[in-house]
C-alpha cells in the first residue's frame, strides 16, 4: 500500500509538469490551431537561462521569476516576428517552422551551454516527507507550485478583462473582432503565457531529469499525451489529462510486468492512440460543427 501511495504522489508531481506542458500546448493550439512541436525546446532554453542567472549569483526565486518574465516576452516576440506573417499559410508551412524552431533552440542551447549534463538546484531540498520516503520535498514543492500556477491561470481567465478577451479570441475570433477585441495581440499574449508556463515546467523538472539540451523531449511527449487525453479544445481538460498521464505511467511502470522505466513512454503514446480511436476530441474536448 505504501508503494502504491508513493507512486501516486510521485505521479501527481510529474503529472503537474505534464499538465503545465499540456496547458501550454492547448493555449497555442487554440490560438493558431497547430501543435507547437518546439514547446519543449522553448521550456528547455528558458531553464538554461534560469541556470545561468543562478550561476551569476542571483537567488533562486529572483532567477525563477525573472526567467518567467523573459520567457513571456520571448514568446510574444516569436509570435509577432515568426508566426504572425504565416497567418493563413498552409499547415505544412507551420510544421516546417516549428521543426526549424525546435532545431534552432536545441542547437543554440548546445552551442552556448554545451551538451554536458548539469545539475539544477531546487529550493525545496531533497529530504523526505510524509513518513518513510513517501514523497520528497522537491516533489511536494512541484505539486504546490503547479497548483498555484493553475489557480492563478483559472482566476486570470475567469475574472479579468484580458483573460475573457483571450478566451473570446480563441473561441470565436470573428465575433471577438466585432466587439473590439484585438485578436492578434490576444494570440501574442497566449504565446507569451504558454512560454512562461513552459518555463515553470522546465525549472521544476530540471532537478529531477538534470539539465541538458534534450531534457524536455520526453516531457513534451507526455504533455502531448495529456493534451490529447484531456482534449485540445479544453484547457481544463488538458490539466486533468496531464495529471492522469503522470499517475498512469508511474503506476504502469511499477506494477505492470515488463513495462518498467524503459517502456513508460510507450504507455503515454498508447493512451494517445486509444483516446483518438474512441474519442478523437479527448475526454473533455468539444466537437466542432461547421455549417455549410
TrEMBL record:
Signal peptide: none annotated. The chain crosses the membrane at residues 6-28, 60-79, 91-113, 133-157, 183-209, 215-232, 239-259, 265-286. It is found in: Cell membrane. It comes from the Bacteria. It is a multi-pass membrane protein. GO terms for cellular component: plasma membrane. Keywords: Amino-acid transport, Cell membrane, Membrane, Transmembrane, Transmembrane helix, Transport. One of its GO terms (biological process) is amino acid transport. Belongs to the binding-protein-dependent transport system permease family. LivHM subfamily. This is Branched-chain amino acid ABC transporter permease.
